[in-house]
Batch of 3 targets.
Target 1
Amino acid sequence: MGKISAPRNNREFIEACVKSGDAVRIKQEVDWDNEAGAIVRRCCELGEAAPFMESIKDYPGFSYFGAPLSTYRRMAISLGMDPNSTLPQIGAEYLKRTNSEPVAPVVIDKRDAPCKENILLGADADLCKLPVPLVHDGDGGRYVGTWHAVITKHPVRGDVNWGMYRQMMWDSRTMSGAVFPFSDLGKALTEYYLPRGEGCPFATAIGLSPLAAMAACAPSPIPEPELTGMLSGEPVRLVKCETNDLEVPADAEIIIEGMILPDYKVEEGPFGEYTGYRTSPRDFRVTFRVDAITYRNNATMTISNMGVPQDEGQLLRSFSLGLELEKLLKSQGIPVTGVYMHPRSTHHMMIVGVKPTYAGIAMQIAQLAFGSKLGPWFHMVMVVDDQTDIFNWDEVYHAFCTRCNPERGIHVFKNTTGTALYPHATPHDRKYSIGSQVLFDCLWPVDWDKTNDVPTLVSFKNVYPKDIQEKVVNNWADYGFRGAKK
Amino acid sequence: MANKWEVFVMDLGELAEGKELELTIRTLNDGLHKYTYQRAKVEVSSTLDKFADSLQVRLGRGQLSDRKFSIRVIERVERLPARYR
């Protein structure tokens, strides 16, 4: 693999985005109470440059960086690629890097770790000293973690988990968060810590390098520190926490350390979510007690403002879920030609392109997809043939509306695993993470005669001879039409 | 100085008047601690000048209620076990 020159930390990423016009510096003071959130939300809805807010009311010295990865351009920049790279190019690069050898992290001395420039311990570790924003009016609280990693370690296996579990500030030293029972942290809590009544050490890292955030968001079986190294082409620098044995990214802007309490819960939510709604109920949830805060001088807090498309929750999760499913299906020898989630589906619909070489292939794909670790995060799988451009929604929608037989092409899977965030789920199903899922099989049946039974697609590129197509395209302007040749 | 508070409820019926309630309320006073919570024994009233402090209400998904209350915070309730303080 060639040398990768990706931004190594959040600050280099911001500089690269400003330089390319993909971020704007906002000099005027911005209020942490709704205003910053409103700016980020509007940027997401307009597909704007990312706002780098350099002056925060009540919090001199701190800044915000909003919507860090809500466009494919910024995703390309985060990978050290040309911002004009196409989505298939970005996807191919992600697959190439994540199929390479794992890159182990390195642990550095505390004196060399920027995240240790300021250290608050015990009662001084007051979350209100950080510019925690009220992201949406009406949220259940100020959200500390919207684009971050909650770092924990499995007590028996020892594997490290970086996960993006949202965290709300409940009081100066307490946060509450949504941790689903099927997640890595959820399983560790319910299988180990809670039955034993033991606290689970945690660290929250905010203002990560964009590739560390990408790794924390990716449903990959590769441990996130190694995955980050594979994506960036160099080892992640870690440093030991002040109050527990966890290791955290040394270049992160802010680190919050503490303990997940086994026998005490406070309320969390509601919160504006990636589905574009406030769906999950306010409830007593996993509770994090803070023991220490460390942060860089002039720390920048990252903000993701989830809501209607499109924000990085939808964009990045769609991207990584699709590519991880592609890896899974290929590992099973299924002749997939591509997997893609349109971010505007709020990562609910997986579109799979496949060579339909045998009967039942769509069902096999759906069973693998829904039965995998990825499954709870989407509830629709649509399978189209290799002649359909999965990145072109017009083609996919046409295939769905014309080839999916209402009786034989739609298969519902009941009593699966869901999340509390599904807007269509009943209140009961949300509470217990009960799901239901559906396959839309848009393939022509293999037992249809290909000559006489399978309809012919009537399109410019499919029914005319190549020489006629070229003649028409080349004469397009001469006919009197405007527009570029295609 | 009067304080401003906010509470989340699923149903306004949770705010019964004329008796002591235990609620999770958050401060709306300006400053660094705005929106932080505490558990407290309180009394509420739909008569806005009955108590000095005011209470704003939000429903289950964050919708702001039209109903306003006044509130008296009787005492703070500490539920966090002592070993974690």
Target 2
Amino acid sequence: MPGKLTLPLVERPLDDPFAVYRGETVTVGRFLGDAAALSEILPADGFVLNLARDRYHFQVAFAAAILRGACTLLPPNDTIGAQRAVSAGCGSPRVLHDGADVAEGLVGLDLRQLPPAADWSGAIPDIDADTVVSISFTSGSTGSATEIARRWRTHFEGVALNAATYLGRLGGAFGMVATVPPQHMYGMEVTMMAPLRLPVTVSATRPLFPADVAEALATVPSPRVLVSTPLHLEALLDSTVRFPAVTRVITATAPLDAGLARRVEERLGAELIDVYGCSETGCLATRRLARDEAWTAIPGFSFDTGQDGVTRVSAAHLPEPVALQDRLRLDADGILHLEGRASDLVNVGGKRGSLANLTALLKSAPGVMDGAVFQPRDRRGGRLAGVYAGSAEPGDVRAFLREHLDPVLVPRPLVRVASLPRNETGKLPLDALERLLTEHVANTVRHRTAAHDR
Amino acid sequence: MTETTPLEKELANLVVEVLNLEDVQPDEIDPQEPLFGEGLGLDSIDALELALALSKTYGVEIRAEDEATREVFRDLRSLARFVEEERKTG
């Protein structure tokens, strides 16, 4: 089925409320005006790196790049190392940011310095539907970084599938607050793309602490949708803060247990929807975990597992079938069964990483001979740990890792050992690594207690 | 190393315990050593955990919306000052 050749940048009336930015409500017209003004000072046809933390800044920068015919690069984090890695082969991309440190040699543009532009009053701009408008960089299971290029059609049509499921049934206009970054697939799809087509007012902030979440919720209209992660929801439950009424909570990125889902529903008076998806395809299935563990596939996707055991997903808005990390089966009732999870991929505080990649990075540190990064089970937030053998001091290895990784992905503790507990086939069983870690912690505590008693 | 107050010592223990900093001794943390980035290298998950522990232990709520929180979380000394002031006014 051939689609339309062009699709609009926005599908909403110009006077619709669009975002709450710096305490005031910004309309669709103002947003388009700001995007058009920024697009005029961007280099044509090139690349931009969008590091904005503020959601409204991200929206304006993304739309401006599209209007200018530039492709937006979305790095896995805003470290200098990541900026350099994603810029390789893309000329000299303009770095659009709101306070990040820009890698030397790249030209930055601080979005906070832009003066507010006049409201857009013309027709809504049409965008060539098959232009690649974004490239996300993420950790693939093969051990090397994966690039995911998306056409405007893929971004735009994806919203309709979400609107029919977890963003539906809200009865007209709604407000949204999110604790996840706009750069990653989930945050991008739910908090950045949805507002271009659905009647939602998004808070530009990315609240971290429970009191901030409550404050942000109070600024957006009701019914309210909170977009978050299990880690953050657990923190909200732990706090004594009072939250404004929330109608729906959407969570993704990490496994959630039914008990937590029920407690969130009770505390916030909301319906909690758990979303399953991956960077390559966007959201694929949803479930109301407090009531039912089964995943219902979002209509429009089909799943096919080949002889090679790899599941490929197809949809009208995806240019070609996409191979997934997990093995999935869709039954006749529309229930999606997860039959195998790719164990190499980990998610820490919403940041995705590949253990193979992280291990390779650890081994590349100066003075490290052998090493492994792993995820001990039963650790809150999924914090990673690392072991290595070599002459380097733990502090120096940590500093090296911090130059390349988002802080949440830096393993803790990083234990130096004489040799790694490899078995006869050279593999590193998780049990053995966990035992090593337990011993290390016990020794440290003993040492600490002894020091205290002295 | 600068002189450490009793509250700073208490907070150092809290930080090490709550964040499972297995390879750090509480009395090794200088009250003026940065907690995030360079120094101890704490991150956003730690900030969240620490905020919850402070709320439970001292009944103080941390907010990040203003620049002030960066200041509060800079080191043990500013954290202690914040806890003291909040306890007085709260």
Target 3
Amino acid sequence: MSPLGAMERAAPLLEIDHVGFRADGRTILDGVDLTIGEREIVALVGANGTGKTTLARIVMGCSGYAPSSGSVRLRGQDLASLAIHERARLGITMAWQEPARIEGLRVHDYLSLGRAAFERVIPLAEALQRVGLAPDAYLDRMLDKTLSSGERKRIELASILAMRPALAILDDPAAGIDLASVEEIAQVIRDLREAGGSVLVITHVDAIAQIADRAAYLCGGRLVCTGDVREVVARYRARRCVVCDGEACR
Amino acid sequence: MSVSSKRFLQVISSFVPDAATLADPTTPHLLLDGHEVLSVQGIPGVEVRADKDGEIAVAEIVVAPGAIVVPTIHTCIGFLQAREIQRLRIRVRIGEGASARLLAHCLFPNAEQAEHTMDAVVEVGANATLRYSEGHFHGPIGGIVVSPTLDVRVAEGAHYVSDFSLLQGGVGRLRIAQRIEVGANGVAEVTARVSARGHDDVRIEDELVLSGRASRGLVKTRVALADDARAAVIGITRGCAEGARGHMDCMELVRDRAVARAEPIVEVSHPLAKVTHEAAVGTVDQAQLETLLAHGLTPDEAIDLIVTGILR
């Protein structure tokens, strides 16, 4: 295991270079360094409120999430000046922890969105099947509040799968998913890699973290360590944190 | 028939997608240009009558008890003049156990200083069903005051579904006032969808009275506002009987300098009745927007999709 993200095994697709973020006078992220290689799955673990989603939003370029310091690069290109949709067109996309429901939009139309911006798309019905949803039952459904939280999460994953982005950021993809289906979610993440993409997955579910090539442990806004998934997760579980000695993530 | 009315008939075909069906003798219809009755047609089980009473057009559509009306009943109402006043009094009666679908096309493509007033009484008999859609097509100026007032009575076991839409052209000044009373085991589902811009001014007042045992009602309003448009949606739902269930769902989307107001009022006068409401007034939801942007849509494309979605 390498402290502070020294070990990288693949050519970098994404480089997060000393990124800091402050909001309301508080430091949310402090000098985070992390790289993600081509066709690599990186699991980001840590307690609630340690900055994982903030880091994801910074990479995606969400409004109000410009880093206070540092930079984010995709294949060497600095993303600072690019809005979300411009980053999406470079191949980055994100599945939010609680995906938005959009009234009046059919699942079929949602899955079709923006596919032109991405390469290597797959049939929509196949994308739904891969997340355990029957196409006949869901393609004509509305993407509104009639969907359960779990159904909506699966559709979000299907939309990511349908796009096959260069980098998928998945914020807690197994939250709200029944235990018996976690393996389906894990397989979707593997499928994204097999299709040539990389994945940054924020997770609290061991079975999801274990499919990653590497894990990174964030605590108190600082990256504690990156490296072998089992070792990083074990360290997180033991709360042996070099930043806060377990206090911040308890 | 006046020259104007001949032109009105021609205009109908450009606004009404299935206008050709109006010439079909099996399609019941009512065509009204200003106060001039252009055409009425009934079919077995459906009576359509219309006449002029002074400066008011008076119409009646009656569906016989037990009649299951397969063809949609069409009404085309409006005028082509820039300055015109149209007053309409209409009564719709759906007999006990009958079923019908009524599609109203309201066309005011050239209105600049105009007025359209409609007083409607709708009676849906016991165990009958009426599906009523009213679509408005206004010109770009929106120089019109539109004031539909509806008194709807849904009898025991009856089902009433209505959908008002004003999505094309300038709204002008819209004043909808409707009262819907639902009897025992009856159901009313009422939707209004309006897209307003410029200096459009919208006021929608719905009163849903769930007076019968186990009656149910849903009032849904969707308004999208841009520029300097204004809207007020006042919804009152009264739960007055055992097992009555009502819900109001109002969403107003505001952009630019537009102003929206929602006033949901709930009144329950029986301990076993329940009425709920939700109202959301605000700009485009950031989470929805970012979700679409992350799919590669531009901000304009994403906002259009969200606005179109809530009005669909």
